[in-house]
Amino acid sequence: MNPPASVRYEGRQAPVAMVVKGYPRLSETFIAQEILALERAGLPIEIWSLRRPTDGAVHDLHRRIRAEIHYLPEYLYQAPIRVLKGLASAIRQPGFAAFRAQAWRDLRRDFSASRGRRIGQALVLARELDPAVRHLHAHFLHTPASVTRYAALLRGDAFTFSAHAKDIWTTPDWEKREKIAASRWGVTCTRTGLGELRRLSPEAGPARVDLVYHGLDLARFPPSPERLAARDGRDAGDPVRLVSVGRMVAKKGFDDLLAAFARLPADLHWHWTHVGGGELKAALRAQAETLGLMDRITWRGALPQGEVIEALRDADLFVLPCKEGDGGDRDGLPNVLMEAATQALAILSTRYAGVPEFIDDGREGVLVPPADPAALAEALATLARDPARRLSLGRAAEAKVRASFSFEAGIRDLADRFDRVARETVLRP
């Protein structure tokens, strides 16, 4: 059993409760990178996850994080005692009346099993958090922020958030607006996302939501390889090596990429490696089979960071044709683009979401319109046949990520924000 809060945190800052949807996740290394850096900056953290991990592997980043990890019941029927204890405790919480009113208001607008789970998870979180914890921070503005907001409301705690991509574009406007208003502050990682959140909360002022790029901890990446290979697609025995890293979901545009591959000239020799899992795995493989592409594709599945980097170092061109996905889902600024840039790898992507905030078309990479297989095929063929241009684009991308997208500035900003909340918050007796 943990000692009382007055003993655990005497003379030092109580931890921030970091609420995430799932932990650890291979596709969310940007969160792990941030948590590790904030720990190193002196911020104590507890991780509260709405789901248990489903990936078969973990990054080395996760192994270096010291934060305690707690799992809330993903489905309430799996832990009825925890939920009932949370409900009984809620009645004695200082914000119970406000919580009850907010939960009822939200249920009237969104009467769903998902909403009920969020409320139940918040009851458990509010009860099981150490009384010394006074600051809750949610990663993602949809489900994690709902649970975090309800729990903070019950306990009378500070609530802040980081918004990323899907959560911005798939959460109803009324819900985003109210969460922003209820928070101390929020950050997001692209200018397009920032514009959307500020549009919803003009009365809150620009200080309520601000831009903090994820950036990269460049120390995690080896120096870029010496890229002297001149593959130009003419040698069937040494084809141009294409690589993509990303979950097999609609917004990544891999269906467009397969359609583009089918349009490439017959005399152009290429091989594509895909890294990542996802719900469209069977559909994409079936599409590749129908198009007669399977002998030119290697499906590697989800990989730990070290093997992802090796795949990037071995490739000639990185391709990620982002577009709008199901229900308005979209990317922000995919970290994998910056990771590819650390290895001086030329990038082909789309003029969509936060991608142009990192890549100037024709300078650090090539951008085509989203959901346009014909334009994608033309760019693929051009870059495959021009190794000198690929080298130039890759070097420019590496220079930009190292000059402008290191994550140190963002971590300093976040550490200062968390420190201000800690100074403004009076510890419970």
TrEMBL record:
GO MF terms, alphabetically ordered: glycosyltransferase activity
Record's keyword terms, sorted: Glycosyltransferase, Transferase
Signal peptide limits: none
Keyword Glycosyltransferase: yes
Matching Gene3D superfamilies: Glycogen Phosphorylase B (3.40.50.2000)
Origin: domain of life: Bacteria
InterPro entries named among the record's database cross-references: Glyco_trans_1
Annotated ranges, domain Glycosyl transferase family: 237-398
CDD domains attached to this UniProt entry: GT4_PimA-like (cd03801)
PANTHER family (UniProt xref): D-INOSITOL 3-PHOSPHATE GLYCOSYLTRANSFERASE, GLYCOSYLTRANSFERASE
Protein name (database record): Glycosyltransferase involved in cell wall biosynthesis
Source organism: Aureimonas pseudogalii
